[in-house]
């Protein structure tokens, strides 16, 4: 698999560290136990389009949000996680 | 008899001026440059190449290429012995040695051929039915017996002396296969200026043009191919990879190929790899892999002398070797007639031609007459005769009359299977094409086009035209040149194509999978027993599971099953194709990553100093760390470690701690950021001070620990454990970039930039003073416990000093720029000599931290909480931090969780055993009585007895209790007393000295 890093260009997936779901919002410290359980432990496992976090460890070391079809590995978009809010 | 009884007097692509000597099964032979082992043996009159897998039936050459199922040999000797190598793929070299395999005691006389008589025992599913009972017989009797009787070659028993490498190529257009379609595609793409890679498994590009007697543009096909290759070699952006098999396709245009760089030599040249694994990243590709000829299934079809008709032409035309003296040709269409024509042209006798079709075109009848062959239109092969070699063919004519024809070669042409395996690696399903009478690729992987026979276009003109078109389109996709207007006549009904031809069963076994000895009767048995889907058929009969992955067998096997189930073959479908297309050596996959080169070795900056002091090293991840420093006369590691610990506790020692992870942070929000990632408060740390830092994971468990030093108001340096240096950095980057990008903080790993040394012991301050510039004041008043500061060395170099202690003695850590590391270590040892300094290693460091009850590897195991480690009071209640909420989960606060304790043997002379489990006195040694375990042990020179740390349920409230530490693995049980984790100087008097 090749991931088009917005900073470095298309690179082999072995340069990246995978971390799963990108759309989680860290709850506040006073949120309920269920909310925290959800955030830390529960994950969707869709066969299809999914926003995932990949870190370009052996490149720019940036955490990227990769929109990928988990069934076909087609990649639709890649944005730097820190710039995500600003780009939207 | 001549040495080459089957060598044709002229012709072929062999170099008759270069004679090569080789041996097979101990006998000496000769051949020519350009021969394969198969063609050289064939020319020498050898027809018996191996014994079959289960029945030990004699087998000869079936093919001339990588699909060969029978002629598998052990190539080379000793450490370079390579089993299961197709003789058809071995380029002859001078001095080559090979032996046949799977025979006992010899190829011509094989005792285990008796298996053939027991064949009812060895039918499909025999493993499941025959060797079931009693179970204890399996390992001791059945399996060794089966392994002796069945199976293939022997692997080498010593380490491979050769080396292998991996490399990456980027291109616009990858052309897979250098036959006529591939050459045309590479030319069309290469002429546009696109970067083109053309690869082929053969040493010589040309594909079937090397084997068939064809004319292109008025010149022989062989010459056309060499002209095409000459042009390709002249194009600067084109690379032709010979001896290179493309074996797998992966996502996003990634392809894997193996180049057999040195297999055609006795040993690789100096510094030359044997194989090179190519990762090819291509924007578009052309599948020009050609097709594999389909064997015909009839009784006795495995007898040596029965060969694919196309392979016969390869031996005749390319290698100038006649596979037989008198031939019979059996064909389902026009394809086999090319072989008849070649025999006629060379003046070799053809006794008979059997053609599936009841009525034949007059041109073929004429050809048969010229060749002197009897024609059996609408006939079948009813059987074969001969012992170790074919001597007659039984033919049933259209009326069912039997004819026995003397012949020593039976060439069979059952049509062609496009080589579409690669096109299916990403999940594409093969589709049956009636016009091609074969499976072709249904949907191709993105960016791939098929050309020529791989796309079901079997005629030469179609191959050339479709190749040019695919090459031009592939280049145009990448922005080079223009696509051609379609020059290929669309797939048309091919008059010669036939459905798969299944002949009536006869008394003799008819083989479907030659390599795994799967016969038609096995497919029928699978059908009767309900294993009818193609995937069940495969696994029940092992059809297509041999090293050739069913390239010859699968389609015939599926066709038989489809007939039995009354389905069309297209409905029955095929099994799934997976990489690799042909076997790939493990060496090529590993490349240089083996032995000590499995991963890079990291050496701390002062490694050479430890080496000069004759340290014994240990692996810590990729690092080599000094474990202990034996002195002359010491009898073992324990004596050395006791001496090192004693020296530190009573004098002074120095230890290289450069492998710790070090991260430097700056920025206005650096303190606030550290507050969020450490469980304890960091922002209150004063400039010039250091603090222990405990890091949790978000699930509340301990992630890592280290020290945090504040060098300036907005500059911190933190350390991590050696093991977690990479993980903690990545975690911090996640926290900053994903969770809190609004924080104004910057950080970078400086692990490799700073060498760091722990200077420990009551005389540490005196040594430090001697190392530093004389003006430096490191008195206890000026530089107290947990102070951090920048100093100059006596030589004027930068030194960061932290008064922190892992050993529990008075200690400092000195950090210097990595380039000065070795010099600094030597300077510390020199300055310390008057004070009796010793270098100490990780073993002494570990003893001292166990004496002090500091948790490390055995306790920071990813399953312990801060409370478990006695660090619960560090969790701040005044701020949010990673892991704060889930650390408070009721289950994580449960007092019955195993928590850190110290332990010592009741009998002080007893030794402790790491990994032992705590069991109450009198209780049974069972899992339900397990109360915890011993996580670290050491002999404490300071106390004169063994001590340990452990994790024990309700541990903190059980100090003074007596338990058994049971180690059933080592068969040891020790009575121990539970204590506080800290065994030595609990008030920390030494620390503050």
CA radius of gyration of chain B is 38 Å
What is the global morphology of chain A?
A: globular
Number of structurally distinct domains of chain A: 1
Multimeric state? heterodimer
Gross CATH architecture of chain A: 2-Layer Sandwich
Structural class of chain B: alpha+beta
Largest interface chains and counts: A-B, 30 and 22 residues
Strand order, biggest sheet of chain A? 3-4-5-6
> Unreliable stretches of chain B, pLDDT < 50, 5 or more residues?
none
Q: How far is it from the N-terminal to the C-terminal residue of chain B, by CA?
A: 98 Å
DSSP strand (E) fraction of chain A? 35-45%
> Remind me, CATH topology of the largest domain in chain B?
FAD/NAD(P)-binding domain
Biggest β-sheet description of chain B = 7 strands, mixed
Low-confidence stretches of chain A: none
Which SSEs are present, and which pair or pack?
The complex is a heterodimer of chains A (88) and B (993).
Chain A: E1 2-5, E2 9-12, E3 17-21, H1 33-41, E4 49-55, E5 63-69, E6 75-80, H2 84-87
Antiparallel strand pairs in A: 1-2, 3-4, 4-5, 5-6
Chain B: E1 15-24, E2 27-33, H1 37-43, E3 50-51, E4 58-59, E5 72-75, E6 82-86, E7 96-100, H2 126-130, H3 137-149, E8 165-176, H4 180-190, E9 196-199, E10 215-216, E11 219-220, H5 221-234, E12 238-241, E13 244-250, E14 254-260, E15 275-287, E16 291-293, E17 306-308, H6 309-318, E18 327-331, H7 335-346, E19 350-355, H8 362-371, E20 374-377, E21 380-386, E22 390-396, E23 402-406, E24 409-413, E25 416-418, E26 430-433, E27 438-441, E28 448-450, H9 460-477, E29 511-513, E30 518-519, H10 520-528, H11 534-541, H12 554-565, H13 569-572, H14 586-590, H15 607-612, E31 616-620, E32 623-628, H16 637-650, E33 653-656, E34 661-666, H17 670-677, E35 689-696, E36 702-712, E37 715-720, H18 725-739, E38 746-749, E39 754-760, H19 764-771, E40 788-792, E41 798-802, E42 811-817, H20 821-832, E43 838-839, H21 842-852, H22 890-893, E44 898-905, E45 917-919, E46 932-940, E47 945-953, E48 962-967, E49 972-979
Parallel strand pairs in B: 1-7, 8-9, 8-15, 9-12, 15-28, 17-24, 18-19, 18-24, 19-20, 33-43
Antiparallel strand pairs in B: 1-2, 3-4, 5-6, 5-7, 10-11, 13-14, 14-15, 16-25, 21-22, 22-23, 26-27, 29-30, 31-32, 33-39, 34-37, 34-38, 35-36, 36-37, 39-42, 40-41, 41-42, 44-47, 44-49, 45-48, 46-47, 48-49
Helix pairs in contact in B: 4-5, 4-9, 6-7, 7-8, 10-11, 10-12, 16-21, 19-20
């Amino acid at each position: 698999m090749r991931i088009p890093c917005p900073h470095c260009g298309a690179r082999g997936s072995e340069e990246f560290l995978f971390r799963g779901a990108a759309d989680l919002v860290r709850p506040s410290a006073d949120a309920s136990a269920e909310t925290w359980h959800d955030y830390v432990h529960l994950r969707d496992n869709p066969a299809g389009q999914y926003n995932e976090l990949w870190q370009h460890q052996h490149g720019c070391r940036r955490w990227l949000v990769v929109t990928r079809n988990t069934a076909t590995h087609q990649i639709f978009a890649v944005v730097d996680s820190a710039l995500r809010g600003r780009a939207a | 008899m001549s040495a080459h009884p089957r060598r044709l007097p002229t012709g072929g692509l062999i170099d008759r001026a270069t004679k090569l000597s080789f041996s097979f099964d101990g006998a000496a032979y000769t051949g020519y440059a350009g021969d394969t082992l198969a063609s050289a043996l064939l020319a020498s009159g050898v027809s018996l190449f191996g014994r079959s897998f289960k029945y030990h039936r004699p087998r000869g050459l079936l093919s001339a290429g990588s699909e060969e199922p029978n002629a598998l040999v052990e190539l080379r000797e000793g450490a370079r012995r390579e089993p299961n190598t197709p003789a058809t793929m071995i380029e002859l070299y001078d001095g080559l040695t090979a032996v046949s395999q799977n025979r006992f005691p010899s190829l011509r006389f094989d005792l285990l051929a008796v298996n053939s008589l027991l064949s009812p025992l060895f039918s499909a599913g025999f493993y499941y039915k025959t060797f079931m009972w009693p179970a204890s017989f399996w390992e001791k009797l059945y399996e060794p017996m089966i392994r002796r009787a069945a199976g293939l070659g022997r692997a080498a028993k010593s380490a491979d002396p050769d080396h292998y490498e991996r490399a990456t190529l980027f291109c616009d257009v990858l052309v897979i296969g250098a036959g006529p379609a591939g050459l045309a595609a590479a030319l069309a793409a290469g002429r546009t200026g696109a970067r083109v890679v053309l690869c082929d498994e053969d040493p010589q590009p040309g594909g079937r043009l090397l084997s068939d007697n064809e004319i292109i543009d008025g010149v022989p096909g062989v010459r056309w191919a060499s002209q095409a290759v000459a042009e390709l070699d002249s194009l600067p952006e084109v690379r032709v990879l010979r001896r290179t098999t493309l074996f797998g396709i992966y996502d996003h245009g990634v392809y894997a190929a193996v180049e057999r760089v040195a297999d055609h030599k006795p040993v690789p040249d100096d510094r030359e790899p044997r194989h090179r694994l190519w990762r090819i990243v291509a924007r578009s590709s052309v599948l020009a892999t050609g097709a594999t000829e389909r064997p015909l299934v009839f009784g006795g079809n495995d007898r040596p002398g029965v060969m694919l008709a196309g392979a016969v032409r390869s031996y005749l035309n390319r290698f100038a070797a006649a596979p037989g003296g008198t031939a019979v040709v059996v064909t389902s269409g026009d394809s086999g007639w090319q072989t008849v024509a070649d025999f006629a042209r060379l003046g070799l006798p053809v006794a008979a031609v059997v053609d599936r079709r009841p009525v034949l075109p007059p041109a073929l009848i004429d050809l048969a007459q010229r060749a002197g062959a009897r024609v059996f239109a609408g006939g079948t092969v009813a059987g074969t005769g001969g012992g170790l070699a074919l001597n007659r063919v039984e033919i049933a004519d259209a009326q069912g009359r039997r004819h026995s024809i003397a012949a020593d070669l039976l060439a069979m042409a059952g049509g062609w299977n496009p080589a579409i395996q690669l096109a299916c690696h990403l999940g594409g399903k093969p589709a049956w094409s009636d016009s091609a009478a074969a499976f072709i690729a249904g949907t191709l992987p993105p960016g791939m086009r098929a050309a020529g026979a791989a796309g079901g276009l079997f005629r030469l003109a179609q191959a050339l035209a479709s190749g040019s078109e695919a090459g031009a389109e592939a280049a145009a996709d990448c922005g080079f040149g223009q696509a051609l207007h379609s020059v290929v006549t669309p797939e048309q009904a091919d008059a010669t194509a036939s459905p798969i031809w299944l002949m009536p069963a006869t008394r003799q076994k008819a083989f479907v999978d030659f390599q795994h000895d799967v016969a038609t009767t096995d497919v029928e048995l699978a059908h009767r027993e309900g294993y009818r889907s193609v995937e069940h058929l495969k696994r029940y009969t092992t059809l297509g599971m041999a090293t050739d992955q069913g390239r010859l067998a699968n389609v015939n096997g599926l066709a038989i099953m489809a007939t039995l189930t009354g389905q069309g073959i297209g409905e029955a479908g095929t099994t799934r194709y997976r990489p690799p297309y042909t076997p790939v050596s493990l060496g090529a996959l590993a490349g240089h990553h083996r032995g000590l080169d499995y991963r890079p070795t990291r050496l701390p900056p002062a490694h050479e100093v430890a080496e000069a002091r004759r340290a014994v090293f240990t692996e810590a991840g990729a690092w080599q760390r000094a474990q202990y420093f034996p002195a002359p006369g010491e009898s073992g590691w324990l004596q050395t470690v006791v001496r090192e610990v004693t020296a530190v506790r009573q004098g002074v020692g120095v230890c290289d701690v450069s492998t710790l992870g070090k991260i430097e942070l700056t920025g206005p929000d650096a303190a606030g950021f550290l507050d969020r990632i450490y469980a304890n408060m960091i922002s209150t740390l004063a400039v010039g001070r250091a603090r222990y830092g405990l890091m949790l994971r978000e699930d509340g468990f301990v992630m890592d620990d280290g020290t945090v030093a504040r060098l300036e108001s907005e500059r911190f340096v933190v350390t991590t454990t050696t093991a977690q240096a990479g993980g903690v950095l990545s975690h911090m980057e996640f926290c900053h970039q994903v969770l809190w990008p609004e924080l104004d903080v910057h950080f970078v790993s400086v692990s490799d930039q700073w060498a760091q040394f722990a200077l420990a012991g009551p005389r540490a301050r005196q040594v430090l003073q001697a190392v530093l510039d004389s003006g430096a004041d490191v008195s206890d008043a000026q530089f107290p416990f947990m102070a951090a500061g920048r100093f100059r060395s006596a030589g004027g170099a930068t030194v960061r000093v932290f008064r922190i202690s892992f050993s529990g003695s008075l200690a400092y850590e000195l950090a210097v720029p990595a380039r000065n590391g070795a010099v600094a270590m030597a300077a510390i040892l020199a300055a310390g000599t008057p004070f009796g300094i010793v270098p100490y290693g990780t073993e002494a460091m570990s003893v001292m931290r166990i004496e002090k009850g500091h948790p490390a590897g055995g306790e920071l195991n990813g399953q312990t909480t801060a409370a478990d480690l006695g660090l619960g009071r560090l969790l701040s209640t005044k701020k949010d931090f990673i892991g704060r909420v889930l650390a408070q989960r009721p289950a994580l606060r449960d007092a019955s969780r195993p928590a850190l304790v110290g332990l010592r043997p009741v009998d002080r002379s007893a030794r402790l055993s790491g990994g032992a489990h705590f069991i109450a006195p009198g209780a049974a040694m069972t899992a339900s009585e397990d109360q915890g375990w011993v996580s670290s042990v050491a002999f404490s020179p300071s106390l004169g007895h063994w001590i340990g740390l452990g994790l024990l349920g309700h541990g903190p409230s059980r100090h003074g209790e007596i338990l058994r530490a049971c180690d059933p693995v080592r068969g040891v049980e020790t009575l121990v007393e539970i204590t506080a984790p800290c065994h030595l100087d609990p008030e920390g008097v030494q620390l503050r000295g």
